[in-house]
Amino acid sequence: MYKIGMISLGCPKNQVDAELMLAKLEQAGFEIVNDAFGADAVIINTCGFIEDAKREAIENILEMAQLKEDGEVKKVIVTGCLAQRYQQEVIEEIPEIDSIIGIGANENIAQICKDTIEGKSIIDFPPKEELPLNGQRLLTTPQHWAYLKIAEGCSNCCTYCAIPKIRGRFRSRAMEDIIEEANALAQSGVKEIVVVAQDTTRYGLDIYDKLMLPTLLDKLCEIDGIEWIRLLYCYPDFLSDELIDTIAKQEKVLKYIDLPLQHADSKVLKMMNRTGSRQELTQLISKIRNRIPDVVIRTTFITGFPGETAQSFENLAEFVKEIKFDRLGCFAYSAEEGTPAAEFENQVDEGEKNHRGELIMQAQYDIFMDSNEQCIGKTFKVITEGYDAYSDSYHGRSYRDAPDIDSRVFFTCQNALQNGDFVDVQILGVKEYDLLGKAIEK
Asked: Are the C-beta atoms of residues 394 and 421 closer than 8 Å to each other?
């Protein structure tokens, strides 16, 4: 039996791809190992979205190549976005790689691994649209939560983004396939599903000729065992009144919306090939907050986009202070080869990009801490995710926190809890980004 290790980098969508591959490998009789040492092959499922992600991917490839040279790993296989985007460059610059494949070849990962281990060098780049979207998954998340990818690719063509080039145009999964997968997840013990796509709110438009996320959510809410449904990557253009009302009325759908806005200055948004204006975004957020009491809104912004003047940045900074987002991430603009924005004039100095990002995060820190302080005295339903013997406390997340992204709730409890157990926690204090509390005993 061959031993296979997997290193998966980047976003949750890429993680789902890795889980599909791991299931295929297990079904084919491979032994999946957590440690690369002694593996017959290691697969590196790369990210290639921005410069930092590319650097991380290359570092991991080189690390595995060194282990191969040392005799600790026999073969190195590379797939994912970096391989898809830079296939020729990766082949030429890292000859230690034994096989390199595009995302469209993931369906055949078991045969590719077998052939590679037996001495063949595989270079296979079928159409990216052949990336499998359905099938069994070997979950790499804790048993009580999992990602549910409802679509692949993107059709928005933002000028800074290479995703359409890497992943292809937006294509929704059939609703019955998604429901079948969600049922299987529930039967395996998953209690929280995190709905993801490159553009979640566009779901259904390509295959049903209408926005179908509200209908999908209604059907997911009918599944026994699923208690929480969380939405990530909600593009603002398609956040319809119907979707807002569905989130408001469905108890299982968490009052948490990840709404990547990227900027608030109208000129910068236009240069990004994104619609809307500061006024329109303000109106949308006001509508969301009016219709969904206690909603948590998460967003991301890019600073230092080409042509972002001091005034443009000031508009963004004022917007952040005015809206008071519950959760916020800010990233310095990364010029990506092959994207229109990389060729724009008025590129912003690297130091200035980072400085502006730091200013946004400083402003957000004060907003976030105020929001945390307002939680003191409130009671939240928390999903348990671990126990710390040193502090004799459990930790978990409320509806306000997405896994692997946001903060945690630390709490004491007299009863023994298992990961995945839900418990009501009264918040008593704040420690940096996290909340502190005690379980309400029943």
From this structure: no
Alpha-carbon torsion, ordered 348, 352, 358, 362, to 10 deg: -110
Domain shared by 405 and 340, yes or no: no
- Do both 104 and 204 map to the same domain? no
Looking at residue 387, which CATH number applies to its domain? Answer: 2.40.50.140
Q: Name the token pair of 84.
A: 């898809």
Helix (H) or strand (E) holding 326: none
- As beta bridge partners, residue 429 has 436
> What local confidence, expressed as pLDDT, does residue 120 receive?
93
Domain presence at residue 137: no
More confident residue, 88 or 398: 398
- The reply to whether 262 and 358 lie within a common domain is yes
Q: Within this chain, do residues 216 and 76 fall inside the same structural domain, yes or no?
A: no
DSSP 32-85: EES--TT-SEEEEEE--SSHHHHHHHHHHHHHHHHHHHTTS-S-EEEEEHHHHH
Q: How confident is the model at residue 390 (pLDDT cuts 50, 70, 90)?
A: confident
pLDDT band at 418 (very low <50, low <70, confident <90, very high): very high
Range of the domain at 431: 379-439
Residues 67 and 196 placed together within one structural domain of the fold? no
Confidence band for 306, pLDDT divided at 50, 70 and 90: very high
Q: What is the DSSP letter of 190?
A: -
* pLDDT tens by residue, 123-169: 999 999 999 999 999 999 999 999 999 999 999 999 999 999 999 99
Q: What's the domain count of the chain? A: 3
422 token code pair: 């839900």
Task: Note whether 197 and 228 are same-domain residues.
Answer: yes
311 CB-near residues (< 8 Å, 6+ apart): 265
Q: How many CB atoms lie within 10 A of CB 177?
A: 14
